[in-house]
Amino acid sequence: MKTLIVALALVSGAAHAETTAIVNATVHTVSAAGTISSGTVIIEDGRIKAVGAGLAAPAGATVIDAKGAPVTPGFMNSFTRLGLLEIEQYVSTDDTAAADAPFAAAFDVAAGLNPKSVAIPITRAKGVTRAISAPDFGKSMFAGQGAVITLGDDDAFTVKARAAMFVSLGGAAKSRAGGARGAAVITFREALADARYFDRNRADFDDNRARATIVPRLDLEALIPVLQGRQLLAIDAHRASDITNVIALAAEYKLNVVLIGAREAWQVADDLAKAKIPVVLDPTNNLPNQFESLGSTLENAARLQAAGVTVAFMTTGDQLAHNPRDLAQFAGNAVANGMPWDAALAAVTRNPAAIWGIADRYGTLEPGKDADVVVWDGDPLEVTSSPSHVFVLGAATDLTTRQTKLRDRYRDLTRSEPPLGYR
Asked: How far apart are the first and last CA of the chain?
């Protein structure tokens, strides 16, 4: 399996010469074209060739008759540990954090990603074709660099490295910065000041004449793109007052920010909309699990969307590494709690594409986009629905997983041969 790691843009794997036409489909383009009844999606050379009603399948194309079933872009989970963690209790399978390293901001998860992770095909089989693989926090308020991954087989597993810098400015940051939220904000400001000083005085650093800084040189290098607004800064914060601090810092330093978690974001929804700061959240978060999330509500996503905030979804808790496949179910929960269906679909397709910088290639069913396409056997946001076909970068993927193999292995218990222990 070949893994492609690129710093600036997602690239497709090997070109797929075959042509596929999905016909008689209810096509949810998640674009200005809206939903197309009796629509056709034509896939050629890994890209979407055409989308529309009444299109003829090209000669020699593989034809899939959807029989009216929904077709959507592949879903994107905006915060996972996919490819970084297999077994939590077994340290050799955990590459989520550089907890004891002398650097944190410079830590890049891309080199530790495992394309053979058993969680990847399980996730893909539920219609998730892209994801953010994010670092975890150690002793620093900075976690490091997360990556966008495309969950394909073989050459169709691709990586956009350093997609965002992850940092905490909420309650979790205070213990890493002296025990108070004010200390965390000061530490963050000082880190940015150090990065600016480093960028302007590199020769002094090379000659060992520079003033002392609170972060090491590798971290200073990593922070410069953030300071210049060229790299997305993903900030973990939940309390409304913490989010207000983030809004102020983003404006002061002209940072390109996305909020992660943001359980009380609905309380400052108008301010977030005005600042054009998007939010990645878990729409199933309800009861508070700590004081900074007393305002948690299942209506968080709906209220933010109604205020004009760009919202994308993630699956938290055990779902970070082991069940990010549950994304469609989580989006359905948002609909059940007031979010329009089309907006919830956008929160797992078009919106994350815009947030994570891949909207030129992914997120809608439009000609020229990467052919991440899913055919569903029912409502994509209904928990009982599943994909019947999943294409990643134009390649039809095998929906067989370790779990389906185990299911089939022991489905018929009446067979005597081979004995259960030999199956």
From this structure: 28
